[in-house]
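Field reference: sequence -> structure
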Amino acid sequence: MTAFPEGTILGYPRIGRRRELKKAVEAFWAGRIDEQELERTASELRAATRDRLAALGLGRDDSAIPESFSYYDQVLDAAVTVGAIPARFESLRAADGTVGLAAYFTIARGEGERAPLEMTKWFDSNYHYLVPEIGPETVFSLSSDRLVREVAEGVASGFVTRPVVVGPVTLLALAKASDDAPEGFDPLSRLEDVLPVYVELLAKLRAAGAEWVQLDEPALVSESLPAGVAQLSEAAERALAVLGGASDRPSILVAAPYAELGAVFPVLAAAPIEAIAVDLVRGGVPAAAAGLEGKTLVGGVVDGHNIWRGDLAKAFGALEDLRALGAPVAAATSTSLLHVPHDVADESQLDARLVSWLAFADQKVEQVGVLARGLVAGRSEIAAELDAASAALADRLGAPGVRDGAVRQRVLGDADFSRVSYEEREIAQEALDLPALPLTTIGSFPQTGDIRRARARFTRGEIPAEDYDDFLRREVASVVSLQEDLGLDVLVHGEPERNDMVQYFAENLDGFAVTENGWVQSYGSRATRPSILWGDVSRPAPITVDWSSYAQSLTTKHMKGMLTGPVTILAWSFVRDDQPLGETANQVALALRDEITDLEKAGIAIIQVDEPALRELLPLKKADQPAYLDWSVASFRLATGGAAAGTQVHTHLCYSEFGVVIDAIRALDADVTSIEAARSRMEVVADIAEVGFDHGIGPGVYDIHSPRVPTVEEVESLLRRAVEEIPTRQLWVNPDCGLKTRGYDETTASLRNIVEATRRVREDVNVTA
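Structure field:
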């Protein structure tokens, strides 16, 4: 067994510095390139990543470079590798039982009558993973050797890399029971059945040239999964006894990032593995445990979740504290760098002073290298780098705009966080004169190539503002006309002026900066550019009022004002870490509160404040959850607390595991809440009915993350299930999420089917509009 390197990272961005993988994958889906060309592009990206990481200081031949590529999602990769394929996709297997690339994408995206795997958030990040479906009938077998081939590819070019795969406990703990499984079935009960496939995979990786393998087991730090800590710990002990006891395998690194290991650390310390990665950004140095002899402790001290340069002196001190446990120590990132952009050097428009405070993926690799050198040569050898980081941090904390007296002097009282009772609001909102089962959409309409090209030309200064404004007005008018023709009841303006639901607000609020190339993968081929929230937040002028007013002037139906909520703006930005998140959320909330006041003055009577990230930021440790829910709910109520009784406040949550935070969602006190429900086939309505949720609710009937057009019968079935569980007076009809990522043909066809399904249900439940 070879020694673990002094420095490493747990993963690296895989979409490409200019989103090359996204473009190639979408070209393959569209039939513009074949599988061979897609594979060639992916191979070139992997080669470029290895070369880049070696140039930044990670070793070419010591397993310091992780092999963490994925075409779509690492959880899907693991599920396909072990053959956890739902029955509806079994016919896509090749004759030898393997699952090819086309089948892989079909499982992710769906096709025809085959619904895709459900999607939800990866722990407390903005990354989405695909939820495996596993039942007693699932036959595990090694169904893909893609990771093996990628290791061999690296060896052929002179690299000994460390393959990364989601571990068996996390794979099963994140899975849902298949449709054929009996009630109460727990996928984790299949652990002993899947372990032989992992043993076979380890042997093949070793034969391909891997000296180390990284098993990602973040489920071990979570207290929010159905399986409790004790059950997960016991499962990890059983799994690692088998994998560690395998006679033909690489050395094993178990990584459990995103929170403190806590009680699971002694289990890993005693397991027959060679290294343990500990997140020292989200957790502290663990207590001493038996069994560390012969193991390396990989200290995750460089924040993989945020983009600040950070306190390197503090990070090195944490590594020194970790050394006190008596085992060899290596420096690492706290998580995969999947969550941050590639390189701050790609940002030519950012203020130079701000740039000096930042560290994107490549800069974090360099930081790991500095800390690794200090571990070998001593603190004095890296004193200059530690001092430079400390100076940048001090400069950041004292810079103008980081603390704004005018923002901080705004006094809040208890009355600012609440509206009149829901019962009073219901009476006042009768004046809206809405039909039963009101039909609406979430907000955005397709961002067409024409829209993106016009925006790019305007940004480059190639067309004047007046022409761009005229173009956008035509787009809004077209969207309004389409909705009226389809028969929707509450309309939206389609948001053609918005590049992103967070960035648009960041560009119009003080305290934010935006990037040119700061792309981060959200799911599959989709990427977002999180804004940088670096200072105190305020609103210099109204943001959405003109567009909402113009759209309302085009129709006699109600037009929704569309805002992004404070928690989501924080969750989908890189947020300052020098004050509690709750304080920052309240600053954003006050800016939104002022926007709502101006929308009301402009005659907008329905205002949606989207909070799709409410569940996302929920801490993984239960002890930390009440404080988070207090400030996150309070910030939403602060934003909406000034709205008049007759103003109907909506909110939207997607892929949010509604049941987990249902009390908090009720506490938001929105008049109407729309939620994801189509991909999970209305599972959420049971949670809604069980708690007696009595506000308006719109469980989604159209899965917009799939290119499938739902049939009228499919939507009707979903609606009828909702009507069976929830009083009709509360129900709204809407898609799962915004339509930005879809094309107009599929959007129009889907909405037309939704309208027809709603008409049928309205008639049958005797609630005709």
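Note: The radius of gyration is 26 Å.
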